[in-house]
User: Fold this.
Amino acid sequence: MERIDVAVIGAGVTGLASALEIAARGRAVCVLERHPRPGLDISTHNSGVIHGGIYYPAGTLKSRLCIDGRRLLYDFCVRHHVTHSRCGKLIVATDDSEQPRLEALYRRGCANGVEGLQLVDRRFIARREPAIRAVAGIFSPETGIVDAEALVKALLHAAEAAGAIFLPASPLRSASSSGAGIELRTSRETILADTVVNAAGLYADDVSKMLGGETFTIYPVRGEYAELVPARRSLVNALVYPLPHPAGHGLGIHVTKSTAGAVWFGPTVRYQSRKDDYEDDRLPVDAFTDAVRQLLPAVMPADLRLSGSGIRPKLHPESESFADFLIRRDRQNDRIVHAAGIESPGLTSCLAVGRMVAAIVEGPTD
Assistant:
């Protein structure tokens, strides 16, 4: 049996950033990943946006870690040569009736400490995005885009350089606790860990149960995307969002131009039972047309085709509108540290989440 200071379950951006920070503080750490490669679930099934921090209630982990994480992420991308762009984002009101909601969102963003936010008029929007229909907007200059797959690779390389051990194709099969630590069993080996970080994404609730931790529920929520055909990508220059859905279920079908130049529309919101169902009963491309044309009237149905999909690990049911990240010691087993429910802005926040997790690991257990 191998002994380790800290075992991290899950090699998405949350787990890898946590392992990087823990290893940098001198702890022996390994990362167990069920897939043969890191980041194959949530981390690379999203739009790759580096969020400014506008949307989240002030004082929440989502708000604070998004802003701190954004700064850390831009610096990391520069140092590790990860493709990214601080391209800025427009959040737009498409008619005058949306102006009060736009102004309320602007005030929230300012209260959260998001740098450089501007209320802008139709002329400003037309200069940046001539094809977008809008009467007013918020411009967030600190918002950007990152190549998520390149980020995952860079985090893995940085974590390994700091001494972390990556164990691919090693799903957790069972676990048990004793006074000596938590015994983790995979199909290949048994590891005795002083502390276990639960960064298992969509399966964090299952892993908590397996570890003998507290009970909580991860609700899998699928988001689907459409995209512009290559010949029409010049219609969009950067990032354009509608106002968030009033019910709180997502930020609406927004426009993202990736670092490779693809233009995506999405994600949609669908609560579902399965955590691995990305493709069954996909929406037809026609389901995106009306929402896309609200922002881009020049787009015709023939300009769209289906793109990828992702699944968010939400901590609240469909009847509720918000749940914060779950980042703390388990209340039943203090050898477990949770980093669960890390949906948007989880990619942006990953390095700040990693720092918080590492601080909890090093901190008192009572």
Observations:
- The first strand starts at residue 2 and ends at 9.
- The chain has two domains: 2-45+149-218+322-362, 89-141+220-311.
